[in-house]
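Lab meeting, action items carried over

1. Structure of the four-component assembly. Owner: GW. Status: complete.
Input record:
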Amino acid sequence: MPPKLGILVTEFVIMVRKAMKSANLDSFDRKLLECVRRNNLEPARSLAEKVGLSESSVLRRLRRMRLEGIIIGDIALVDPALTGGAITMHVLVQLYNDGHIRTDAFARNMARREEVVAAWNVAGDEDFVLIVQVPSMEAYDAFTREELSEQSHVRDFKTLISIRPVVDTLISRRPLRA
Amino acid sequence: MPPKLGILVTEFVIMVRKAMKSANLDSFDRKLLECVRRNNLEPARSLAEKVGLSESSVLRRLRRMRLEGIIIGDIALVDPALTGGAITMHVLVQLYNDGHIRTDAFARNMARREEVVAAWNVAGDEDFVLIVQVPSMEAYDAFTREELSEQSHVRDFKTLISIRPVVDTLISRRPLRA
DNA sequence: TATGAAATGCCATAACC
DNA sequence: GGTTATGGCATTTCATA
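Predicted assembly:
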């Protein structure tokens, strides 16, 4: 398949997906999402009772939503102690301000680092907010040296050591640690 | 059951759980976790091939890890467009420094707010880092007024508006929006 | 086009070795 | 940990509105 056609097909698929996705969800769909969002192993029979549909309709709707990308995945949640680093840091980063090139390059570097759980490009005094999880201070030190201190386009950075999470409705999809 | 006994039983259950949890996972367990962490609807037969065990062993191990709290949940991931607010803010909060009472009260307030997706108590110049998701600037304005500006124990706060997430291995467990 | 009901086939469960 | 028999659940097909 020639590249141009490939791109066209890709775009078409995306258009179809969006079109399908924007097909509004009715109240049954929303109720089902509310349920499987908390527990996706619940049998269809039980879901059917809760939402007021037959078993087959429930299964049809769930399959449709999975195909359309409304349900984007089905996963087991693993104890964070096994996944996350023990120490969480927040890092505020300022770059030297010369256009998008350095911003994009920095973003790509962050995406490559295992320690970076999440990162945002932000407006204001700072340029980036990072959430970094590491098993030890040595690991954090290595990270800051390699990605921040020794990088000439990083003007400054400020570290906020997390004492404890007080709200946490987020879960990580990072790979398990050895 | 008298209260004291109830507490003892509760503590015992917690002890047992921790003891069970600390029972180290072998390489089979870890491989299984790696799999179900990405897809928990994959049949045991398929998992058995991947990790090199029989179907029943796979199912036994998964059930054990669910009971022991190593697997803490099984959920469907819903398209973030349906769940999260459109706008993400990072807020750095400084409180007036008079002990733990205000810190705890603030943490409890944050836990109550739907807008607050995550929050950490941090060391350094700031006291809290918040991740706030809102559907509009009006909603953010209301949030800051109610929880920050009008609160006498908040010394100062600084808002970083997220332009775009550049790394995102986190997913939200917040309820669906209407 | 989407539903509900019944037949089929797959998968988890629980008893064994 | 592996093997086998059972029960439950999802899938498919069909009839219906």
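2. GW to write a short summary for the group page. Key points so far: The mean pLDDT of chain A is 86. Chain A touches chain B through 63 residues (CB under 8 Å).
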